[in-house]
Amino acid sequence: GEDVEQSLFLSVREGDSSVINCTYTDSSSTYLYWYKQEPGAGLQLLTYIFSNMDMKQDQRLTVLLNKKDKHLSLRIADTQTGDSAIYFCAEIPLNRDDKIIFGKGTRLHILP
Amino acid sequence: NAGVTQTPKFQVLKTGQSMTLQCAQDMNHEYMSWYRQDPGMGLRLIHYSVGAGITDQGEVPNGYNVSRSTTEDFPLRLLLAAPSQTSVYFCASSTSSRGEKLFFGSGTQLSVL
Questions:
Q1: Nearest by CB: B98 against A88, A92, A102
Q2: Run of H or E residues at A1
Q3: Chain A partners of B43 at a C-beta cutoff of 8 Å?
């Protein structure tokens, strides 16, 4: 497909793990990104993974990359109220004039 | 270090008015870009610049003009505002011309009545 696909909403109970999924378009993309947008703010780069890696862990965040299926996921362990935000998946494919392409974002809602 | 600064934060315009959204960065980034964010549409690239004196169109350039006279500043001009331009606008910058590892401003919420 032509678009970076993400589900629009995810609800998770506080303390549980959140898993946000993304399907990207181009297996030639060298870096894949996760951006976080808190209410009323701009996007902030959360983490990224190089395409020759399968997994990257950074404290409570784990990024998994399946190049065969062009699937990227972001796992947030021990989800907190401060994790409530919109999470954007993004890629820079070589076949689209090297411009970054964002998914539409997944809004993570934390249940008490 | 302020990063990317956008002004104003909020603006209300009448149809047909013009205005300029300001964007400035203090990180000496060559790449700067403007996005609009609409519900259900995600982020759409309006214009971008890979350095002073160089600008190019993104996905949705119609109705917007840009210029890049300095590395620091990248203003976005709406010449004849239309209700379809009601949106949240974000400026972003990067060291990379491909837009890797973008730094975003906090946004301008624009309403055109």
A1: A92
A2: none
A3: 43, 88, 102
Strand partners, A32: A49, A91
Please judge whether B101 and A99 are an interchain contact, meaning their C-beta atoms are less than 8 angstroms apart: no
Asked if residues A29 and A22 have their Cβ atoms less than 8 Å apart, the reply is no
Q: Which residues of A touch B40 (CB under 8 A)?
A: 8, 104
Q: Which amino acid is at B68?
A: R
Among candidates A42, A99, A105 on the partner chain, residue whose Cβ is nearest the Cβ of B104: A42
**Quick one: pLDDT at residue A97?**
64
- Could you read off the pLDDT of B50-98 as tens digits, one per residue? 999 999 999 999 999 999 999 999 999 999 999 999 999 999 999 987 7
Residue B62 structure tokens = 């119609």
Q: Residues A30, B105, B63, B61: what is their CA dihedral angle, to the nearest 10 degrees?
A: -10
Angle of CA points A2, B98, A59, to nearest 5°: 85
Contact A63/A55 with Cβ under 8 angstroms? yes
* Tokens read off for B53: 């004196």
Question: What whole-number distance in Å separates Cα of residue B103 and Cα of residue A102?
Answer: 14
